[in-house]
User: What shape does this take?
Amino acid sequence: MSSRRLMKMAWGALGLGLALVAPACSFGSESAATILVDYEHDTFATQFNRYFPDRVRVHPGDTITFRQTWTGEPHTVTLGALVNDVLEVTKPLIEEYGHLPDEEIPPKVFEEFFAAEGQLPTAFGDEGPPEGEGPPEEGAGPEGEAAEGAAGAEEAPDAEGEDESERRLPGTVAQPCVIEQGGEIPEDGGLCEERELPEFEGTELYFNSGIIPFEGPRGNVFDLKIAEDIEPGAYQFLCSVHGSFQNGTLEVVSEDESAPSPDEVNQATREQVNEVVRPLDKLFRDAQDGRLVLGGETHTGNFSGLTEGFTSGLVNEFVPKRIETSVEEPVTWRMFGPHTISFDVPEYFPIVEFLDDGTARFNEELEPPAGGAPEAPEPEDPSKPMVIDGGTYDGSGFWSSGLFFADPYVEYTLRFSTPGTYRYACLIHPPMVGTLVVKE
Assistant: This one.
């Protein structure tokens, strides 16, 4: 997954969600508060680049549990004076402009946003926005971005696959890291000297959980211990993978001021999730009925993922889950959001790989086409859907379309030369699976 694609995913993420939370649900723990990182609906697969709730009042000495739902998206919890400074600039810009398409956002907004976020190590790298992702030139439209919106439209990988530097995550993002005021963030993407997390005192320049592991003894959990002597105030946090669009605030108050109970925090979670879910919940139901309307256009047929507008969440489902076809008959999916269509996926397919030296990288097989799938052509008109003929799959071996992300959507067609029942999946969203039955 290249830095360019991650930047697109982050900038396109604002405002809506995907799941209805039933009043009976409970997210409680013995912590003072539990904050959900990502979330998955109980009837269809989803992904949220969100924290729920995104603001919590706590006391000095409290422990805050960040509980992750593993949807395929890696997340961090990153705090510190540097994060406060960045979000002071980026949050107002997101609130004012985040819902608009790129061509309607003044170039100076991109300049301000990237100048601020460029101070932080992120999954995009430490050098600021990748080429072609910075502020558009005066009068420029979205052509450059949309043309690069699919894996095949970017620079071709070398014979060894995508360049290692494109896949490697900065050590200060992937692993726990504490840098005190006066310290410096490693410029080479290396590991932080201090990787044992102490209590959070609020004076640190940079304090990062590292990517929350999705397996192991503490899989999907990060406990943040607030120091007893922390100064009351607002301490902001964000995800170093998704940047400023995924943010929240811890409001530390003195012991003589009230803080919500765990049950009250859970109630705030329910309210926030319920508020953002309804439009996309309806979208999913419409897709199940075989007909939905997006951007004034009516869509029918098969869908690979669902999203609408500038959202912080996706419905990660193939709709319908089961497709029947005949040998050499074309099957076409309309792909909304970043996804792959992949067959014979290995049983263990880690999205992020942690290496023996402590560094991490995205799996080299995530993004490029595989098994004979073609590279995506550069679109003639980026304002229109990207249409790709994937050719024919013979039913043997690992085959993947490659990772695509195009606006408004990708229309991907594939044929099958051999009868059989095939399971397929999206490589970056493990719960997103489907079945395709090919008859003579």
